[in-house]
Amino acid sequence: MNPFENILSAVRQKRPLVHFITNYVTVNDCANMTLALGGSPIMADDLCEVEQIVGHCSALVLNIGTLSERTVQSMLAAGKEANRLGRPVVFDPVGVGASRFRNETAAMLLREVRFDVIKGNISEIAYLAEGIGTTKGVDANLDALSTEGNLRWHTDLARKVSTQTGAAIVISGPIDIVADSHEAWAIRNGHPMMANITGTGCMSAGVIGCCVGADPQALLPSCVCAMSAMGICGELAYEKLLSVDGGSGTYRVLLMDAMSKLDGATLTRRSKAERLRI
Amino acid sequence: MNPFENILSAVRQKRPLVHFITNYVTVNDCANMTLALGGSPIMADDLCEVEQIVGHCSALVLNIGTLSERTVQSMLAAGKEANRLGRPVVFDPVGVGASRFRNETAAMLLREVRFDVIKGNISEIAYLAEGIGTTKGVDANLDALSTEGNLRWHTDLARKVSTQTGAAIVISGPIDIVADSHEAWAIRNGHPMMANITGTGCMSAGVIGCCVGADPQALLPSCVCAMSAMGICGELAYEKLLSVDGGSGTYRVLLMDAMSKLDGATLTRRSKAERLRI
Amino acid sequence: MNPFENILSAVRQKRPLVHFITNYVTVNDCANMTLALGGSPIMADDLCEVEQIVGHCSALVLNIGTLSERTVQSMLAAGKEANRLGRPVVFDPVGVGASRFRNETAAMLLREVRFDVIKGNISEIAYLAEGIGTTKGVDANLDALSTEGNLRWHTDLARKVSTQTGAAIVISGPIDIVADSHEAWAIRNGHPMMANITGTGCMSAGVIGCCVGADPQALLPSCVCAMSAMGICGELAYEKLLSVDGGSGTYRVLLMDAMSKLDGATLTRRSKAERLRI
């Protein structure tokens, strides 16, 4: 069996419980996508309970969209406890670069918590890499999205951030990049329609959380599997969308459908994940 | 007319305004399900206004998913005010057993507020019953879900909690149980697919809120009606899902559709609510 | 090209970034509707960052559903900063009249922030106008919704509030009214089914935010365009709903679909916006 099929099977057999401290915009989508993949979500963000909750979980996902002073403390406490317990932690630095508050929170979390995976668009990852750069809201700077032309540069960036942080780095874009200091992958799945609905990035982080929760030893393959799965679902949803003449509302529904029906054979057959020479 | 048809009619004629203090994961689903049934939702959670808001309402629903220190105080104030005004209060102790914070909040609310209905899965109700037990996240311990084999035990548990609290008790599961100290019902409606989307439990509490808001004198029939309605909608949605070859995203949409189109005749014809000998 | 087509084109070319401080019930719908129209949403509500975030944005939308003491301060700071920068600010006084907290917050914001657009149902706008009146939850007092019979009275009210506040006033209802002190419009688009799902009002405010963000000089035409577009999408969604035999869940999806597929020609052809003699 293909390694991605193994990871998908592991999620569906183990049903990893994934703890999210995340924004209130896409939180429902994250919960439903986690269930669609085969995991089990729990959202809890109060300092009074996050350490206990993470103790029940197989992975922790921290997402700084709609950050507040209250949840910064919860993220810190949950992250430290997950580290102590050896549970994988996924960081989604949504909109870092857009405000000092997000920048300082991201910097503090990077200092205090050991992340296993950091996922962002190119401007977010570039911001973390350079301590510079700007982010227009939570969307990527469209000029700089990862494509064939800048794949080498973005991959090098991902490797640099991985070396700095010890985390596997995921850069989402037309081509998704997954890299650590030793190894890099390009995933050419997905569809531009995914940018027309909110939350595909947040959902991707949840899918990564499920995969690394099911098999924490296989960080890089889990990330490649997760991004392939999301991208393939984006393609399948678009194919179905054409047949029903729908728009962005239907697309969002079909994306969830695709994940809940994704099987290992389809994942293997359609995956356009390629290991890069570095 | 069947008593359940009467309750459904009452909701649609009176359009009860239902006040929710609930989690931000499924809050949109709760609002839309309330509207689909025929009620009118209002979500308000700040201590500055919850007492006034509950004063406009026919029922109050308290749900402790994504609880925070801030909303604990709001739940307490709203619950006490609803008691003072004689408005029915529904309690959904989401994830109780998973953290001291949830446990202590549930215990405090049970001490300070008189609940008319308490709805949970078996592990949540068992926790309340015993002051012991564990909850894996917000999902039920799958081994213990209410089925034919443990129906007697779970019904006795519900009756015990009802005696302790004075509330009608609803245990959701493959078989839903509704009981007070005098009377018990088993509802064999529903579909396993309901567990594949987030929020069916929260939505059920909202449906209960609408039914008891429309007819506060008929607590037990209202709960039986609400759980039957939800279960039947879960079945109808699954039947339609098969015809469109959809997944969990479509299922969620069809569940809402089913409630918005549910009529009294279908409710009566399909209800598998059975009064148990106790 | 019709002026409404120009505004729709402007949104799709400029992709205005719209900052929302809004309730957690319909926030996902607001984000997806903004994307469906062609804008780009950013939700941020912490006092630590709202001023910086609004600095990146073309418009600000303040919505007081699920208001908290924390977000009141954020709304004030963001509103003042938007004023300072000359960015249009849209105010959606959800549920004003239902609690002192909402009333005092609305009054304070009206005192401290210069709004470019205020959008509400008739009871909300009447409350602002009179400092009296009552609001049943977040839904309009059904007896008083704007129809042919009270169109003159409601238009006069809108003009009065516009004179008091300097803002363009939008009253949503079976007939939508858009007015300032010089000019008034009636928009006879929309469908009653829009009231059966939560968030159509909040989404309308987001659509207004996109339109005024794309062309801040054309406030009144932008509001008329936005309300026409929402109403037309409500009609298109209902027409499609009939063909698929769906309910309120499907309707919500189709509403989003319709906006994502709306073209200028359809907007012009179907718009029932009429300038009123005043």
TrEMBL record, chains A, B, C:
Gene3D superfamilies: 3.40.1190.20. It holds the Pfam family HK. Substrate binds at M43, G199. One of its GO terms (biological process) is thiamine diphosphate biosynthetic process. Transmembrane segments: none annotated. Its cofactor is Mg(2+). It is an enzyme of class 2 (transferase). CDD domains: THZ_kinase. It comes from the Bacteria. ATP binds at K119, S172. It catalyses: 5-(2-hydroxyethyl)-4-methylthiazole + ATP = 4-methyl-5-(2-phosphooxyethyl)-thiazole + ADP + H(+). Belongs to the Thz kinase family. This is Hydroxyethylthiazole kinase. It comes from Bilophila wadsworthia (strain 3_1_6). The lineage of its organism: Bacteria, Pseudomonadati, Thermodesulfobacteriota, Desulfovibrionia, Desulfovibrionales. The gene is thiM.
